[in-house]
Amino acid sequence: MILDQFKLDGKTAVVTGAARGLGQAMALAMAEAGADVAAVDVLNMSDTKEQVERLGRRCVPITADLTQKDCVDMIVKVTVEKLGGIDILFNNAGIIRRAPFTEFTEKDWDDVMNLNIRGAFFLSQAVVKQMIQQGRGGKIINTASMLSFQGGILVPSYTSSKSAIMGLTRLMACELARHKINTNAIAPGYMATDNTKALRDDEARNKAILDRIPAGRWGTPDDLKGIAVFLASAASDYMNGYTVAVDGGWLAR
């Protein structure tokens, strides 16, 4: 039956940025579909752990700063030791900094790039080595953005990092498909999260954004659960290297 293809029973998912927002929603989606979760963040993950366990699944919180490469082997080691392996990786952790192009600082450039693309690359590298060793394939899902497709304003490092994520997703698909590892990305539209609070608090910008979204509303983290489960499951076994927009119709305008 087709619905059985979406089940994640017996799988283990590593989800970064899992303490809140989109990452927490993805962690809960994995648990709702049957997977155990290694939740990675620099923030307190007690709420995520409680919600995952309420669903009857195991949750292992791992405190790690993904801007520091030396944490990636630890993340893999702890997940394998406590949950038995890694089948799914969600590279979701990310930050955004806003300033005019001519005033953007080196620190704001480096902070965003180090987490959003450098951290995702090196964690993926470590996880892929584990997946290849396990010999049963796997699923990697990267969090892209509307700014993987568009330029945006006031966010040069964020746009650059998310454009890089889409390119890296394609590269990984080309190299890893022979190991039965699928790599795809989700490009959320304008979501009501901490990253967009400044936009939602700006009355003029908020109205301009909503006027362009055919759905007429900001997205919510729950809007990503369906595509997250699809890309993590056997239902997407022949999908590779693609970035899926979940944007309320933003890119269609």
Task: Based on the model shown, name its key terms.
alpha/beta, 253 residues
Walk me through this protein's architecture.
- The protein is globular, with a radius of gyration of 17 Å.
- Helix content is 42%, strand content 15%.
- It starts with 11 loop residues before the first strand and ends in a 7-residue tail after the last strand.
- The protein has a single domain (9-252), classed as NAD(P)-binding Rossmann-like Domain (Rossmann fold).
- The longest helix has 29 residues, at 106-134.
- The chain has a seven-stranded parallel β-sheet with strand order 3-2-1-4-5-6-7, sandwiched between helices.
- It is an alpha/beta fold and 253 residues long.
- The mean pLDDT is 97.
- It has eight helices and seven strands; from the N terminus they run βαβαβαβαβαβαααβ.
- Helix 1 crosses helix 8 (225-232).
- Strand 5 (138-143), helix 5 (156-176) and strand 6 (181-188) form a beta-alpha-beta unit.
Please give the oligomerization state of what you see: single chain
Query: Termini distance?
Result: 37 Å
Q: State mean pLDDT (0 to 100 scale).
A: 97
Could you tell me the strand content as a percent range?
A: 15-25%
From the alpha carbons, calculate the radius of gyration and give it in angstroms.
Answer: 17 Å
The CATH class is Alpha Beta
Structural class: alpha/beta
**Mass-distribution shape:** globular
Number of domains: 1
Helix content: 40-55%
The count of β-strands is: 7
CATH topology: Rossmann fold
Order of helices and strands: EHEHEHEHEHEHHHE
**Sheet of most strands:** 7 strands, parallel
CATH architecture assignment name: 3-Layer(aba) Sandwich
Report low-confidence residues grouped into runs of 5 or more: none
- At the fourth CATH level, what is the homologous superfamily? NAD(P)-binding Rossmann-like Domain
Strand order of the largest sheet: 3-2-1-4-5-6-7
Number of helical segments with 4 or more residues: 8
